[in-house]
């Protein structure tokens, strides 16, 4: 195996060797090339490395390798092991169970109802006491497979892309409800999942961002002309993530709660296209925030924070219909009764009950989407004429207006 300037721990190299040999590469007769898969400055929670196995006389194989930082203090500060344990649980236990249930009911990759919108996992390992964890996954942009594309996070996503995502989320929920029916003991493990998102965003490192972001959002509203909205956003900062976590907890969505991806936004979704450039495939990755909650949460966050404005104002019913039709058709093939498992009227009630999560997440996401530097976020009054801030204000005002329909976070 080749030496590299990319720092890869010995236990990760050993895992890569196992994968290479499982894929037909002969020990001492291939080399491994590494390159960073994450941007400079990333890597607080985990590092991403692309590893390429190269051997004469056969095609190379590229995989994505994720592992936590080697610094134990950094792992602790950013809850890295908690996040890796969660994602490895999904790849080791839940997604294989979804595959098994589908195969048991005759649903294969050739079927339209099949759910396989996630990367293939070659290897998963976690030892929290040793601070070791590794996921080795399919490389979604490797030349040996149909290429997939990561969209620009700064450009709102259009209807066709979101429609394909909604279908995939419908199938994901069908598998989750089928698991509840066929493997209740494993579904109980999903039911026990804590809301990692609320934990991660309420740490010593991230907690100071909450009042800053809420004050920034409040500054989009004149306290004299719109005091109610201004005050609500300021008040949102008070214990926002513990309150939000309690608001969206899975027990409140029962008996209709299911597995959520938990972090469904532009940077965690890739799309595939046919020969004519039409979107026809989607892949969900980064399952570190997976949780037990309302089936409406994943798509509400994506539509309200990542989608074009018209999607939530003019095309929401059409998109939810795509979700529910995919859910119903898939669950029926897996031996379930969709009308009993999740009536559409209950899904729509949960949209109203839990949708205000979009506002809490919006206080974090929208400054990023508007590409606001820290100095503007911290002192917006000084930068009132900045075009980026004005764009942020426009988007935040529209979001606040549109979440008025949702139940408030107590």
Q: What about the largest sheet?
A: 5 strands, antiparallel
CATH architecture of the largest domain: Alpha-Beta Complex
Low-confidence stretches: none
Structural class: alpha+beta
Q: What is the CATH topology classification name of the largest domain?
A: Aminoglycoside 3'-phosphotransferase, Chain: A, domain 2
Query: Order of SSEs, N→C?
Result: HEEEHHEEEHHHHHHEEEEHHHHHHHH
What is the terminal-to-terminal distance?
A: 56 Å
The radius of gyration over CA amounts to: 22 Å
Fraction in beta strands:
5-15%
Strand order of the largest sheet: 1-2-3-5-4
Helix content, binned percent: 40-55%
In a few lines, what is going on in this structure?
The chain is α+β, with helices and mostly antiparallel strands and about 400 residues long. The chain is built from 17 helices and ten strands. Helix content is about 45%, strand content about 15%.
In terms of topology, how is this protein built?
Elements: H1 10-22, E1 31-36, E2 47-54, E3 61-67, H2 72-77, H3 80-104, E4 121-127, E5 132-138, E6 149-150, H4 159-182, H5 184-191, H6 196-200, H7 209-218, H8 227-236, H9 240-247, E7 258-260, E8 269-273, E9 279-284, E10 291-293, H10 296-306, H11 309-313, H12 316-333, H13 338-341, H14 344-354, H15 357-369, H16 374-378, H17 387-402
Antiparallel strand pairs: 1-2, 2-3, 3-5, 4-5, 6-8, 7-10, 8-9
Helix pairs in contact: 3-4, 4-5, 4-10, 4-12, 7-8, 10-15, 15-17
Protein name: CHK domain-containing protein
Organism: Anopheles stephensi (Indo-Pakistan malaria mosquito)
InterPro entries: CHK_kinase-like (IPR015897), EcKL (IPR004119), Kinase-like_dom_sf (IPR011009)
